[in-house]
């Protein structure tokens, strides 16, 4: 996938979050602060604006860096760092990428996952966005295809299953931590955002019939 | 929910600009950020930078000034400031002696300040941090690093500022600040929830005759919901928990802060003080200094917290050193007049 197509895929992901603002708010209000939707939409609008401001991108790295840095410095809070790292974590110190294939994207996502786990200290089962991201990354790895579109399709499915799994978990982080068992039955808002991001990227690739 | 704000995407920006307009005599904003420095800040000493989410006013912005913080960096409502603002703020006040960050222990603040410190490292600015975790209701004693920072922030910032003023190096300032943090506990209760600016419903629901014991200042659920009770019953429970947690013995000297959460009147807070005084006298715990104010609020939340700081001669010395800001003054009015 070319750099300009990657840009469109990232923008599609931003748009999906912006469109889900009230849904994410609703999900977060059940057990969280209720500000996840607003925060994510704010960050994604800022990221989109920053991506449009730049005339053109030479590398995939710059796209991810621009999106990540903008989210980090517009959102604040835990989500700013975590979702900023979603884009930033995997391209830090990487050689210039001008063609994004499935394997390269997998490497980026693996490193993002590592960066997020290290920064936030959460693992699978803690009822955070890691519960959607880690299965998504593992699914990409298992699929091990040259076709990025196929990889993203399985990743999106795994992320959605990860969201379902958070309903059966007790939270170790965030406001939901203080609810203990009262958080059971409710999904994590951060994980929901991850699933939306993967679904949007997968949908874009399928519609465009690119990425294979 | 009625609130005196404008139809805007950026209520924090307007609030911040209003704060800067009010106190431009003393403070200078950092361009493009909700952060500011004290014009007459420390020179040639360790600098103190504080910060956190907006919505708790006057915490944190009200604690910048003489003998207090050199700068504050403010985030969105109840959300930590971002790493870049944290870094730029530290850069604006550092004097080559290192910068201490003091903030409440929350996942978002911890991560953003950590990243801010990493950015400082790239620029060879020496940094350290002290996270405040005074709220005893938010996690067990053995896991205090999971506890939240609430009104006890006031004592830690005050003492950190005094230690910076004294001219110590960064390690010594950290030692004294950590000592204050580790001699401190708080507990709070809410009698009514607050509402975030722009939100269409309160942070949580609470019946007219109910109270939430041990809730957080962002509406985090507490440890128990009970029926409303008279002040003496509420205070006794809070006092007993603080006494047990801190192992307070007869003869121990403490400083007390009774902090209103936003919509609780001084009338009520002095009533709390009346009941607390009786309990402290009964146990022969000596009160060195008391403060009654609404420093660390949660919008229009009703309720209060009690904070105790255990004192020894060293901490007393820093507590008594003069400090002044538009919202907090110490060491000017003395018992000698």
Describe this structure as you would to a colleague.
- The complex is a heterodimer of chains A (212) and B (337).
- Chain A has 212 residues and is mainly α.
- Chain A has one domain: Serine Threonine Protein Phosphatase 5, Tetratricopeptide repeat, CATH 1.25.40.
- Chain A has nine helices and no strands.
- Chain A is globular and about 50 Å long.
- Chain B has 337 residues and is of the alpha/beta class.
- Chain B folds into two domains: 15-132, Dihydroxyacetone kinase, domain 1 (Rossmann fold, 3-Layer(aba) Sandwich), CATH 3.40.50.10440; 184-325, Hypothetical Protein Tm841, Chain: A,domain 3 (2-Layer Sandwich), CATH 3.30.1180.
- In chain B, strands 1-2-4-3-5-6 form a six-stranded mixed beta sheet, sandwiched between helices. In chain B, strands 9-8-7-12-10-11 form a six-stranded mixed beta sheet.
- In chain B, β10 (253-260), α7 (266-282) and β11 (286-293) form a beta-alpha-beta unit.
- In chain B, α2 packs across α3, α4 (153-165) packs antiparallel against α5 (170-182) and α6 (231-246) crosses α7 (266-282).
- The chains are: A mainly alpha (212), B alpha/beta (337).
- Chains A and B meet through α4 and α5 of A and β4, α2 and α3 of B.
Keywords:
heterodimer; A: 212 residues; mainly alpha; Serine Threonine Protein Phosphatase 5, Tetratricopeptide repeat; globular; B: 337 residues; alpha/beta; Rossmann fold; Hypothetical Protein Tm841, Chain: A,domain 3; six-stranded mixed sheet; 14 strands; 31% helix
Please sum up the structure shown.
Chain A is an all-alpha fold and 212 residues long. Chain A has one domain (3-208): DhaL domain (Serine Threonine Protein Phosphatase 5, Tetratricopeptide repeat).
């Amino acid at each position: 996938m070319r750099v300009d197509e990657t840009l469109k895929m990232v923008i599609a992901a931003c748009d999906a979050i912006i469109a889900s603002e009230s849904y994410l708010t609703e999900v977060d209000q059940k057990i969280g602060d209720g500000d996840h939707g607003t925060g994510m939409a704010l960050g994604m609008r800022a990221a989109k604006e920053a991506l449009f401001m730049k005339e053109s991108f030479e590398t995939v790295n710059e796209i991810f860096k621009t999106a990540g840095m903008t989210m980090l410095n517009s959102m604040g809070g835990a989500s700013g760092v975590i979702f900023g790292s979603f884009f930033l974590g995997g391209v830090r110190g990487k050689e210039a990428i001008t063609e994004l294939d499935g394997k390269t994207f997998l490497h980026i996502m693996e490193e993002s996952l590592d960066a997020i786990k290290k920064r936030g200290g959460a693992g699978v089962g803690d009822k955070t966005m890691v519960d959607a991201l880690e299965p998504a990354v593992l699914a990409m790895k298992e699929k091990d295809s040259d076709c990025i579109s196929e990889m993203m399709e399985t990743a999106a499915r795994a992320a959605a299953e990860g969201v379902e799994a958070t309903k059966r978990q007790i939270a170790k982080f965030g406001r939901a931590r203080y609810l203990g068992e009262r958080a059971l039955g409710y999904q994590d808002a951060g994980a929901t955002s991850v699933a939306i991001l993967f679904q949007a990227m997968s949908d874009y690739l399928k519609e465009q019939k690119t990425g294979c | 929910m009625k609130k005196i704000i404008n139809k805007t995407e950026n209520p924090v920006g307007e609030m911040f600009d209003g704060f800067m307009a009010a106190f431009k005599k003393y403070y200078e904003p950092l361009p493009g950020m909700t952060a500011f420095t004290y014009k007459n800040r420390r020179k040639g000493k360790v600098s103190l930078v504080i910060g956190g989410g907006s919505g708790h006013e006057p915490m944190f912005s009200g604690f910048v000034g003489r003998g207090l913080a050199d700068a504050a960096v403010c985030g969105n409502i109840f959300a930590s400031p971002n790493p870049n603002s944290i870094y730029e703020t530290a850069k604006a006040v550092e004097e080559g002696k290192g910068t201490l960050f003091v903030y409440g222990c929350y996942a978002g603040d911890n991560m953003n300040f950590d990243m801010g410190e990493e950015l400082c490292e790239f620029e060879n600015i020496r940094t350290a941090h002290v996270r405040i975790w005074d709220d005893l209701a938010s996690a067990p004693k053995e896991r205090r690093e999971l506890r939240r920072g609430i009104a006890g922030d006031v004592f830690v910032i005050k003492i950190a500022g005094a230690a910076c003023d004294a001219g110590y190096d960064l390690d010594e300032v950290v030692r004294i600040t950590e000592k204050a943090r580790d001699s401190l506990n708080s507990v709070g209760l809410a009698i009514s929830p607050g509402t975030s600016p722009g939100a269409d419903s309160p942070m949580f629901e609470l019946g007219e005759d109910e109270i939430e014991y041990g809730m957080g200042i962002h509406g985090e659920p507490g440890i128990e919901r009970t029926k409303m009770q008279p002040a003496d019953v509420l205070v006794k429970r809070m006092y007993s928990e603080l006494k047990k947690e801190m192992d307070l013995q007869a003869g121990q000297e403490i400083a007390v802060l009774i902090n209103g959460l936003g919509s609780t009147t001084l009338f009520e807070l002095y009533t709390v003080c009346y009941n607390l005084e009786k309990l402290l006298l009964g146990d022969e715990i000596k009160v060195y200094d008391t403060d009654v104010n609404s420093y660390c609020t949660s919008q229009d939340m009703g309720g209060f917290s009690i904070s105790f700081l255990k004192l020894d001669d060293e901490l007393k010395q820093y507590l008594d050193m003069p400090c002044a800001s538009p919202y907090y003054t110490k060491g000017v009015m003395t018992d000698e007049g």
